[in-house]
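Recall the central idea of this unit: under ordinary conditions, the amino acid sequence of a chain determines the structure it adopts. In this exercise we apply that idea directly, starting from the sequence alone.
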Amino acid sequence: MSKNLQKMMKQAQKMQSQFVKAQEELQKKEVEGTAGGGMVTVTMNGSNQLVSIKINPEVVDPDDVEMLEDLIVAAHANALEKIKEMSDSTFGSITGGLNIPGL
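Accordingly, the structure predicted from this sequence is:
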């Protein structure tokens, strides 16, 4: 095996180790997504699991349930966007800007 190939293999192993560690750290982190000026807040973890939902009682209108449903969906989308940004930032620093499929 050439020295260049050995060096590349070591770099790949190091990168893989960094990925695993970063994934474990991201799974522990939580982000909040909000909608309606903070009337609805959802908390999600780095594994994209919904941890909690907080709804301000002022937004609960039995005559307009659709608005509340839309706010929950919007807050969820906001949290997912934040998780993606966090993930992109973390993994981008590991890959040095390389575009690796699936990440």
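Residues 35 and 75 are 5 Å apart (CA to CA).
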